[in-house]
Amino acid sequence: MRIAIASDHAALDLKAALRDWLIEEGHEVADLGPDTTDSVDYPDFGYRLAEVVADGTAQRGIALCGSGIGISIAINRHPALRCALVSEPLSAKLAREHNDANCLALGARLTGIDMAKACAAAFLDTEFAGGRHQRRVDKLSAPQIEDRS
């Protein structure tokens, strides 16, 4: 699978470890940066990741920052992206199965490497269930408020 990975400066070490592990697992990985621990703005890297997943250059994305919150918010501003911030494998699995998440976010200050690998494996190994979930996923890219009065 083609996977894009990006982080901010706080998640550089976790990004490097996950990138190397993903390559060992046989995936093609595009590391979108950064390359140093110099302070950077997570939205810049989140937007870059969103673009390569949206245009099909990468099939899935993995986004990292200190908490995972900021970069996931940035990515979710793109209408074609569904980025799930998770901290354990079941949430990663359900994000794929029910929400067709195409990006996984993790917090480097909150998630160790073994848990990050377990989350990434669940995310990458799970297919979207479709069915009743499809209409909900479709609404994520074209929001409309349903009148329930």
Automatic annotation (TrEMBL):
Q: Does the keyword Transmembrane helix apply?
A: no
SUPFAM superfamilies cross-referenced by the UniProt entry: Ribose/Galactose isomerase RpiB/AlsB
Top enzyme category: isomerase
Q: Which Pfam families match?
A: LacAB_rpiB
The answer, when asked if Isomerase is one of the entry's keywords, is yes
One MF term in the entry's GO annotations:
ribose-5-phosphate isomerase activity
**Gene3D superfamilies with a match to the protein in the record:** Sugar-phosphate isomerase, RpiB/LacA/LacB
Q: Which UniProt keywords apply?
A: Isomerase
EC identifiers of the protein: 5.3.1.6
The Swiss-Prot or TrEMBL record describes its family as follows: Belongs to the LacAB/RpiB family.
Q: What name appears for this protein in its UniProt entry?
A: Ribose 5-phosphate isomerase B
Q: Which gene encodes it?
A: rpiB
